[in-house]
């Protein structure tokens, strides 16, 4: 492995598209934003040193993270509000990966929305594979430099081969611009079992059918290199979830089974409810763990739930 490759493995560089609060101009003090960012990271017990390399003219901020963060950590950061010392918050809107050493190339107001990574985009995946092709764009949308070994995805967006490979390491095989999936997404969920059975009791809002009862079991084990603390033990869990036993409910069940097989339902990290580290936790695919109580208690009735969870699964390439 070369010295450059070692550096890319040990350090990640991302560009954050930040939404500044009303009346606030983009911070010219890198240190203020850096303190707000590191405070949020420490509060959420995430690993790594987050330093602000520079704040660009259009308000985006180039961040260096050492060591390279887990995908789950970057997903948690996206959409978060950071409390700056003067009381005017800023919100992280989008995240893109930028190869280390190329921050100077991404410095122009014309780039302000061009290279955002939108985690809320739910466009349907276009298929697998990446091929070379021609486009009107002259620069890579990740490094904002001239293409080097250009690769074109099925969605027609193009990137340098090395930039795309580095993006895949962090975000998985999905386009950094539109999030179309071009390969099989696989998470870091530990080995376990998923079973389900039919129940006779209707769920609130679905009086014409019974219910599907899903059981997940993930035993405790040792974290791997994919997890936040390799070599340390993580605590296992057992979870039960519910779906209506109708056509749409069974389709969601099929998608959840596919996501489980691709290790996307759970991850290892800090529990959002207990604050404990080294726990098996949900991985942003919401489940109904109660039969009643409504959304406030993770239960039914919730008319929009099945549609929302399908969107969450689609974001991870599960269709």
How would you sum up this structure, described in words?
34% of the residues are buried. The protein has a five-stranded antiparallel sheet. Strands 6-7-8 form a three-stranded antiparallel sheet. It contains six helices and 15 strands. The longest helix has 15 residues. β2 and β3 form a beta hairpin. The N terminus is likely disordered. It is globular and about 60 Å long. α5 runs parallel beside α6. It has 319 residues and is an alpha+beta fold.
Low-pLDDT regions: 1-9, 101-135
Q: Compute the average pLDDT.
A: 77
Shape: globular
Query: Which structural class matches the secondary elements?
Result: alpha+beta
What distinguishing features does this structure have?
319 residues, single chain, 5-stranded antiparallel beta sheet, 3-stranded antiparallel beta sheet
Topology readout:
Layout: H1 3-10, E1 12-20, H2 30-43, E2 49-55, E3 61-66, H3 71-77, E4 81-82, E5 90-97, E6 130-131, E7 150-153, E8 158-160, H4 161-171, E9 193-199, E10 211-218, E11 221-222, E12 233-234, E13 237-244, H5 247-261, E14 266-269, E15 279-282, H6 305-315
Helix pairs in contact: 5-6
Summarize the structure.
The protein is an alpha+beta fold.
